[in-house]
Amino acid sequence: MLCIDFQKFGIIFNNSIITKLKTMTPLITVLITLVVVGLILYLINRFIPMASSIKSILNIVVIIAVIIWLLKVFGIWGGGSTI
User: Fold this and answer.
1) 6 and which of 11, 34, 56, 74 could share a cystine (Cβ 3.0–4.6 Å)?
2) H-type helices in 1-83, by residue range?
């Protein structure tokens, strides 16, 4: 899990702000991962020439993999969080 130590960077917050940031960190990690995967998939679809059937298969595989990952992260499928 991505954990940011703000005191290490000389930033001082009260405990309630630090607690809120620590609880939001997994959600931020999920959102960043989704944006990166989407951007990579967009760039592949846009700039790498390949047959449209192959692009469709690639999109389906990536979407299914992301859905399975999200189900595992939120504990709906399988064990606990793997962020």
Assistant:
1) 11
2) 15-47, 52-73
CA distance 14 to 28: 21
**Cα torsion through 45, 47, 30, 63, rounded to 10:** 10
**Which tokens sit at 51?**
């047959």
Instruction: Check: CB of residue 62 under 8 Å from CB of residue 41.
Output: yes
Q: What percent of the chain has pLDDT over 90?
A: 51
71-83 confidence digits (pLDDT tens): 998 888 875 555 6
41 by Cβ neighbours in 10 Å (0-12 / 13-18 / 19+) ranks as middle
CA distance to 16, 34, 70, 80, per residue, from 75 (Å) = 26, 17, 8, 5
